[in-house]
Design a protein that fits this description.
mainly alpha
Length: 203
């Protein structure tokens, strides 16, 4: 295969390292890890070893394909999964004699970037947000602040009327889509609960 522009000089992993990379994986997982260049879409349910497969594939790209660590971006939804992936990659890099050593962090030049979607997008906006009109010092509201803002809107008469109409539309859409499993119905239920706890009334 032709050398990719993101490739970095790297020594081929030893036979033992290559074997350890695939140890414990079933045939389907091994196929995902060793799949060649291009997009790979995988459907997998809870407890199917997704994190282990992703970590193994990242290591495969680094060790077998010669990819530069900073050419690899691993994204996940939860902070827990991101931390677990970063720790596994750090341990593997240390165990394979990687340049980061045992005390490196996930931001080390010897390790790829592992973050949640939200954290990565936030860092991207802080670095390049000016291109789309976003100031680098923007704040992300936490749950408590979000509820406070919604409560203030609901206490305003005109805003409350608008929210009530939107609530009815969400509930109707949720019922048509099959009930509470639909996000719209769940949001309508949450709004109703917040109002019941005193956030929707005027006094």
């Amino acid at each position: 295969a032709a050398a990719a522009p993101w490739a970095a000089p790297a020594a081929a992993p030893s036979a033992s390292a290559s074997a350890a990379l695939l140890a414990g994986l079933n045939d389907e997982q091994r196929e995902v890890v060793q799949r060649g260049d291009g997009l790979v879409a995988v459907q997998a349910g809870p407890g199917s070893g997704k994190t282990r497969v992703i970590v193994a594939r990242v290591l495969h790209l680094l060790q077998k394909k010669g990819a530069h660590p900073k050419a690899v971006l691993a994204l996940t939804f939860s902070k827990k999964a991101a931390a677990e992936m970063a720790e596994r990659l750090k341990a593997a890099a240390g165990g394979n004699g990687g340049g980061g050593g045992g005390g490196g962090s996930s931001s080390s030049s010897s390790l790829p970037t592992v973050q949640t979607f939200h954290a990565f997008c936030a860092s991207l906006l802080r670095s390049h947000g000016s291109a789309v009109g976003v100031a680098p010092g923007f704040r992300i509201s936490g749950e408590a602040e979000q509820l406070r803002i919604v409560g203030e809107l609901l206490r305003d008469g005109a805003a409350a009327a608008a929210w009530n109409e939107w609530d009815r539309q969400l509930a109707a859409e949720g019922a048509a889509a099959g009930g509470e499993a639909d996000a719209a119905a769940a949001l309508a239920r949450i709004l109703a609960e917040k109002r019941a706890r005193g956030m929707g009334g005027g006094g």
